[in-house]
């Protein structure tokens, strides 16, 4: 039986797929290899995965209902990890329909595939962005996430609700993860660490929004993968103590469903993040300080107590180590 990983040539999907292959699992990877960012980077990730005998790739758009249904019918995966999505908060202001097609219609196709084949567990990516206007830190899954401030976040919040309905109606155990600012080797070129590194090495100024005072829960990709793998092996269950008069938004009394945070559980100011990058590059950055952008929030921080209790999750990578690993990869990959 294989594990289906959507977005397998993407940043997190690549790292997860490689770890699964290394532990002996068979992986069916789904990725359209679209041009949202450099397709050559996606192709390089894919080449590494395809060097493993246990990997099979399906070049497929998640919004292709017939194609996704056929893939499920053929492979009948034992577990599904849905990481494919149109990512990025800022791009959702420019191309909102892309987000609905990929993140809502595409996720419906995944749910229908699960309905037809009944995998043991569906694990899917949500985002810390669903907390939106909530300013109560650290963000706790038992608090409400009802005020998303970008369409990207709204589509991910919709995914959580859609998964709950299918878990209830069709008994599909489902775990949604709210990721917190993931970074590391093979990262996305549209993310801050990649853009900062590229600009500093080229001698260009870097755009620093929020005057550099924003705080983020930066989470190293290997820690994210640890949480995903722990969840794959521990399907969600119905919460037998759930009270419909005081409903817990993170669990369910009518469905094997839950949402959990995956973060590093500490805030780091953006300026400190840049300082560590300067140290690892051995170069100073020229800063272009700018105001906050629409859709940005001032601070994020994950409460991971529930994730630790459910999965034994223990993020352990400080930014000094994680940024160093990214810089080493970047210099090696780009020869700089």
Describe it.
With 336 residues, the protein is of the alpha/beta class. The protein has one domain: 3-Layer(aba) Sandwich (Rossmann fold), CATH 3.40.50.720. Helices cover 40% and strands 15% of the residues. It has 10 helices and 13 strands. It has helices at 11-22, 39-50, 65-75, 96-117, 151-170, 192-202, 221-232, 270-281, 305-311, 319-334, and strands at 2-6, 26-30, 55-58, 79-82, 121-127, 174-179, 182-183, 206-208, 215-216, 219-220, 257-262, 268-269, 287-289. Strands 3-2-1-4-5-6-11 form a 7-stranded parallel β-sheet, sandwiched between helices. A two-stranded parallel ribbon has the order 7-10. Helix 1 links the parallel strand 1 (2-6) and strand 2. Helix 1 (11-22) packs across helix 7 (221-232) and helix 4 (96-117) runs parallel beside helix 5 (151-170). The longest helix has 22 residues, at 96-117. The radius of gyration is 19 Å and the shape is globular. The termini are far apart. The model has no long low-confidence stretch (mean pLDDT 95).
Q: How many structural domains?
A: 1
What is the averaged pLDDT score? 95
- Per CATH, the class reads Alpha Beta
Shape: globular
Helix content: 40-55%
The major sheet is characterized as:
7 strands, parallel
Query: Could you list the spans in which at least 5 consecutive residues all have pLDDT below 50?
Result: none
Order of helices and strands: EHEHEHEHEHEEHEEEHEEHEHH
Number of helices: 10
CATH-level-2 architecture = 3-Layer(aba) Sandwich
Find the CATH superfamily.
NAD(P)-binding Rossmann-like Domain
* Strand portion: 15-25%
Q: Radius of gyration in whole Å, from Cα?
A: 19 Å
Please give the alpha-carbon distance between the first and last residues: 42 Å
- What's the total number of strands? 13
Q: Strand arrangement, largest sheet?
A: 3-2-1-4-5-6-11
Category from helices, strands and their pairing:
alpha/beta
CATH fold group:
Rossmann fold
